Structures are given as C-alpha cells and as structure tokens.
C-alpha cells in the first residue's frame, strides 16, 4: 500500500442482527450515504418510496388474496426539536430509522417511507397476534436506539387482514396515529 493510500473499513448496510441485540447503537451516529437513498440505491438499502410500497402491497394482495397480510405504521415524533439541536434534517433521521427498521425485518417483508415522519412496513403471512408482537418489539428497539437530546418518541400501530384487504391496511394502520401523518 502506498504512503498516500488510506485504509477504509467497509460500511455494513445490514449488520449482523446479533450485533444489534448485543450493543444498541445510536440511530443518528452515521447516516447512509445520500447516493444509497436515491432511487437506484433503494435496492441496496431495502427502503422503498411511498409509491413503491403501495405498488408492492397491491401486488401482494392480487397474488395471494387469502394469505394473511399485515401493515405497520411507524411514526417518529419530536423531529422538529431534534433538527434545531442537530445538524441533520428531520427527513435524514427518518431515513436512518427506516434503514434500521429494514435491518430488523424478514427478507419477505417490505419497508418504505410513507412521507413526513412515517414509515410503513408490509408483513407477509402475518396475522394480527403476530403483527402486534412485531410492532411492540420494533417500538421497543427503536425507542432504545433513539438516545437523543431532545428525545424523540416512536409510535407503532398495526392493521391485519388478508391479501384481499391490502388496499385498506395502510389507512387502518395510520388511523390511530391521527393528524400527525
């Protein structure tokens, strides 16, 4: 290696899940590179746009109308205060949160930005009991990761049904979150 060359450690986009459980990390330590959040980079990060998430939900509903299907809505509160005390924009923080949600989900699940400070998650083959457990686990983990000053709060709501109900699941999951979405 030449004198001018520097060594850089590879950025792991999806760290080992055991590592996540062993040592909670601050969600705003290192944001993903901006190019990873572009349209071409979504395949790398696994986070879809609002439109892509809706299209995926519609496709799943058409392909398996009788299969269990759930939708989680994750709302991040307190970003305005955080933006005043930190150099990051609120949308950057939500992108990082979406990346963390994606790293916790199964390969068969889909994560996307719904807009503002809301993230949507499609859970295939998941009934209401399972989605409630996943929602609480996700809320607990994201709350643990969000050690910030001022603190941000995480709200997760779930809606479950069958593939035939795919079009109404997002609005059902968003309705408990109220006007903030």
Describe the structure concisely.
The protein has seven helices and five strands. The chain is of the alpha+beta class and 181 residues long.
Could you explain the architecture of this structure?
The protein has 181 residues and is α+β, with helices and mostly antiparallel strands. The chain has a single domain, classed as Alpha-Beta Plaits, CATH 3.30.70.270. The chain is 39% helix and 19% strand. It is built from seven helices and five strands. The chain has helices spanning 17-22, 42-45, 50-63, 79-85, 90-104, 128-145, 169-174, and strands at residues 47-48, 68-77, 110-115, 118-124, 153-162. A five-stranded mixed sheet has the order 1-3-4-2-5, sandwiched between helices. The radius of gyration is 17 Å and the shape is globular. The termini are far apart. The relative contact order is 0.21. Residues 1-41 have low confidence and may be disordered.
Shape type: globular
Would you tell me the structural class of the helices and strands?
alpha+beta
Beta-strand segment tally: 5
CATH domain fold name: Alpha-Beta Plaits
**Low-pLDDT stretches:** 1-41
Mean pLDDT: 75
Rg from Cα: 17 Å
Largest sheet: 5 strands, mixed
Estimate the strand proportion.
Answer: 15-25%
Taken together, the total number of domains comes to: 1
| CATH-level-2 architecture | 2-Layer Sandwich
Strand line-up across the major sheet:
1-3-4-2-5
């Amino acid at each position: 290696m030449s004198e001018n060359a520097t060594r850089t450690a590879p950025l792991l986009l999806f760290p080992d899940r055991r590592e996540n459980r062993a040592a909670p990390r601050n969600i705003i330590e290192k944001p993903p590179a901006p190019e990873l959040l572009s349209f071409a980079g979504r395949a790398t990060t696994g986070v879809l746009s609002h439109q892509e998430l809706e299209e995926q939900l519609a496709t799943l509903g058409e392909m398996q109308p009788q299969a269990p299907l759930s939708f989680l809505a994750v709302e991040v509160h307190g970003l305005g205060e955080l933006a005043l005390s930190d150099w990051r924009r609120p949308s950057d923080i939500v992108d990082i949160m979406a990346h963390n949600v994606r790293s916790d989900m199964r390969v068969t699940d889909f994560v996307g930005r719904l807009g503002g400070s809301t993230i949507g998650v499609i859970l295939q083959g998941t009934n209401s009991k399972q989605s409630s457990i996943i929602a609480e686990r996700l809320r607990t983990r994201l709350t643990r990761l969000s050690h910030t000053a001022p603190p941000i709060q995480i709200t997760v709501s779930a809606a479950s049904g069958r593939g035939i109900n795919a079009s109404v699941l997002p609005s059902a999951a968003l309705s408990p979150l109220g006007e903030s979405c």
